[in-house]
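1st attempt posting a full record on here, be nice pls
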Amino acid sequence: MKKVVLIYNPYSGDKTFVNYLDYIIDKFQKKYFELYLYRIEKNKRFENLFKTIKENEKEYAKILVAGGDGTINQVVNFMIKYEIDIPIGIYPVGTCNDFSVQFNIEKDVKKQTEILLGNNYTLSDIGLINNKVFINVASFGSLVSTSQKVDNNAKAVLGPWAYYLKALEELVQMHPLQVEIETDEGIINEDIFFILIMNGTSAGGFSKIANQSKYDDGLFDIIILKKCMFTDYPSVWLDILGGRHANNKNIIYMKSKKVNINCNKHVITDIDGENGPDFPLEIRMLEKRLKVITR
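the predicted structure (as tokens):
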């Protein structure tokens, strides 16, 4: 019998995933899998789990993750660190679940269980920023640390609106940053409000932010909001959220295999909704490195 590990975050989303555990165990046992559960505890690392998996890698068929992008990020970071090459299956039970959007992953737990019992997978790129992996987006500047400031209870009650309301609070406090950004196209020295380095199409629940992005093209989609007047904000946000980046003079939108960024101020960086590394940032693509279980 092949082993399957299900890593679940009981604090993700509306916190109802635990109600399905017996159903999932039953389904996997009937398909002759040994299913092992691992419950994530707040503020506790679970690296030893991946050491064990690596030592016995041939015994494991797949790693399942129930949570949001931050939970998936933690799992993938350990998988890359220990060079674990096992398909990963996702229960998208977080607040926004941006990474799962590009694979059209089923949100219904029971329907997704049937898919995860299968053997189909899709190869996906992932990003590497300094010594950390990100699956969907790396960012810094005004607003981008919003996800780190939102209370879990607010996310459970309000869903994505918890992020949007927090962002509105901080909108009037946006401050420009002087940065140097090196891409395949050259060097940019600019005063900016924020930058998004996208591996997927969606961020914060908005599905068109990087509508030209592909998870397996080996390229990052880079979105930079330049310093602009407060009166320009409405048109900027409408164009970003509507996927009309090329139409706005205040937005730089490009693609690149690599990105190097430096900033002379201490600024919080964000990777998949969690705290990221300090400057300077060296961002590279790990092409088709992750096996994601799909239909």
